[in-house]
Amino acid sequence: xxxxxxxxxxxxxxxxxxxxxxxxxxxxxxxxxxxxxxxxxxxxxxxxxxxxxxxxxxxxxxxxxxxxxxxxxxxxxxxxxxxxxxxxxxxxxxxxxxxxxxxxxxxxxxxxxxxxxxxxxxxxxxxxxxxxxxxxxxxxxxxxxxxxxxxxxxxxxxxxxxxxxxxxxxxxxxxxxxxxxxxxxxxxxxxxxxxxxxxxxxxxxxxxxxx
Length: 211
Hints:
By secondary structure, the chain is an alpha/beta fold.
């Protein structure tokens, strides 16, 4: 029985696409990799992270170094982020049903807490964060161990292929949301447990009848 519902942050709860693309393009100018044109976004959503890096002429080994600078600039744009439509109501419904909520993300804890405070969201206190974009399975296992849970007691909600892969490595069921960074073409071969077209579908995955 699920007790904890964990969420990815960017692309799942927060619509950070405009902010992120502006920041990435600024870094592209600074470091000499390819800028993202608006018309390229639908195609980029179908690619894996490795494929996107090749397309943008950006070496993957530089991601950890770039993540620090990106996180710093991201923190200055917190007020430009918005919640996806229906997210606030979905979170409120989960709280009413007695679920414990958390965020597990490769964004920084400072950025996420600043956003939650700005949005007036007080019922998410559990945060697990790492700049290692492929390390979410380790974070999941750490969270499960610290709270003395079984994998079946956790549900993860995310928007990217790496979220699905991390959950499958951890034995945690995953809801993939289609409104985020990865398109269905990028994740379909890894078969998420549930697919959410709208936030109320997350409630249905937990057998909660949306109001």
